[in-house]
Amino acid sequence: MNIKRVALTTNYNGAVLNRANNVYDPTDLVVTVSSAATCGSGKQICVFDQDYGNNNLYGWVACRAGSSGANPNRTCEHQWVRFNLAYTPPSYQRLACHELAHTVGLRHGTETASCVFPNIAQATTSALTTHDRAHINARY
Ligand SMILES: [Zn+2]
């Protein structure tokens, strides 16, 4: 999990670093976090925040390049995480945890005690469950 924070504002810069170090690094993932002015290319997760307008999304993940395989085993080498500054999320930490979960293949679940619960306003945590971590550790 190679995360590059691309000119993030303070709230998302801190939340991404915090969740990477405290939620994802303790799993079997190898986590690196860096900052840069531009995204560049290669196998990485570039994280951006901008005012993307009123699209009803706090954030989302897209595959920029290097997609292979088919669902549910599709992989993507170069991903973009977008945080929408048009909205203030219920929790920056929870939203960062949520979008980073998608980058490692976790889909929306039914456990409110997971940041991958689809409605982050109703999720009760900014962390992953034992179940989420088991999926990550099985894959990585
Ligand atoms: Zn989601």
Automatic annotation (TrEMBL):
GO molecular function ontology, one term from the record: metalloendopeptidase activity
One Gene Ontology cellular component annotation held by this UniProt entry: extracellular matrix
One Pfam family, short name: Peptidase_M10
GO terms classed as biological process: proteolysis
Coiled coil: none
SUPFAM superfamilies, A to Z: Metalloproteases ('zincins'), catalytic domain
Alphabetized UniProt keyword annotations: Hydrolase, Metal-binding, Protease, Zinc
Residue ranges of domain Peptidase M10 metallopeptidase in the record: 87-140
Protein name: Matrixin
Naturally occurring in which organism (per UniProt): Ornithinimicrobium humiphilum
